[in-house]
Amino acid sequence: MPAPAPTPRNPSTASDGPMSYAIFQLARAHRARAGAMLREMDLHPGQELLLMQLLDRDGQTQSELLETVGLDHSTVSKSLRRMQDAGLLVREPAEHDRRVMVVHLTDKGRAMREPLAAMWRALEETSARNLSEQQAESFVRTAYAIADAINSRALPQEESE
């Protein structure tokens, strides 16, 4: 097994934020690897999140999908349009309100379940390759604790208002 790439030296301006800089480096590396894997599946990053939500519960409205994936409206709309053009899903007006769009997977979209699961398994194996099972479990708990801390804290401009 090749040795892991050396950890980049943190810029001096990040010296008071080594954890934050490490998170940035991790997110960048993970996003790049996931993006490459998704491109092999003819998907754009973010589309897998929409597919996974629909695979768990088909027939969601665009608004429900927006809430569950945490992406902005224009990104979701653009992704859904591309996915519809690729034959993965259809969007139809809701019976109760024609202004509301309901999203349904096509057979081609439903067929993405196993390829997506395989992609996430491979990404997990790659990501945890240098970790023990205990380290991986601890990392997951720590990552969610950090996300909760960040999400529960107002942005500086919101605090001063």
Description:
The chain has 161 residues and is mostly helical. Helix content is 60%, strand content 7%. It has helices at residues 18-40, 47-56, 62-69, 73-85, 107-110, 113-128, 133-151, 156-159, and strands at 60-61, 89-93, 101-105. Strands 1-3-2 form a 3-stranded antiparallel beta sheet. Helix 1 runs antiparallel to helix 6. The chain is globular, with a radius of gyration of 19 Å. The relative contact order is 0.10. The mean pLDDT is 90.
Give the helices and strands, then pairings.
Blueprint: H1 18-40, H2 47-56, E1 60-61, H3 62-69, H4 73-85, E2 89-93, E3 101-105, H5 107-110, H6 113-128, H7 133-151, H8 156-159
Antiparallel strand pairs: 1-3, 2-3
